[in-house]
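Go through this:
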Amino acid sequence: MVYLDPALFNNTNYKLALIFLYAFFATLIATPYFIKKLIKLGYIVQDRYKIKKTMIPTMGGLAVLAGIMISLALSTIFFIKETNTGELFIFYFVIIVYAMYGIVDDLFAFKQRYDKIITLLVLSLPIGVLVTHDSVNILGWSIFLGDWIPYLLAPVYVMVVANLLNVHSGFNGQSAGLGLIILLTVTIKSFMVNGLNHLFVILPILGAYIAFTPFTFYPAKILEGNVGQFMVGAAIGGFLIINNLSIFGIIILIPHIVNFILDTWVLAIRKIPDVKFGSVRRDGTIIAPERTRFKSIKYILTYYLRLKEKDAVYIIYGITIVFCIIGVVFF
């Protein structure tokens, strides 16, 4: 007869591992199903940077959402006494409403940027409830913000991060890969600063995104769509706020911030008509759109360097990884 030590089932590490694994395997199983279903229902877009015209399913973030929901359902059933369900509910309420907004955006393709900003800001308001600090740490200095300012800054922060991740996209694996890199980095930093506290909050989306992201690598089998981009952006922004890592978040998101500034400068300040996509040469290298070549990091790279899609993505990954290392080591 096999004897199982009851202490094993009270071990926090064991429970955290299960929360992660629930999301990972649920998403791993769900993603192929969603690929077939989305193709069948016609939720496909052109994969722009292929020599032959290729159609690919989008809205793959739905598979991630399914994995997260399964993990949360199983986790709260088994660990409800040990879990701060209030924090978990508010955090994932914000993530889910961001995902729902992304679904609507995928279906109806909202054009006005300012409408997105206002809508997402309103959707972010509940995250202020999770703010337990009234100061931020900058290079060892603690700056007091007041009792009410964090409740204003937190929703803005989440909205900005979600938009940053949404804009820094376009190539196979670019947005999902960057999202995963940032997720891993903030998880590591959270553990370094706060130990196991709050990890149960991020592990469902981390497990789901690790399972899903390889499906987006070149040549992608599915794209995450706005539903995936807004969802992971909200998760990253919210988790940084919960852990009082807002300045650290700014450092690791510098490439995303630069990319957003470039996009705003070209489209809003210079008012150059938007050209969303470039084209591809016969050898597979990308031709960046001439008039909007300074619109994003990906187009600057492909304009000045003769790069294939996956090579450009590797460079973009590398840039973000450098800033993530700087953030973890120095901030």
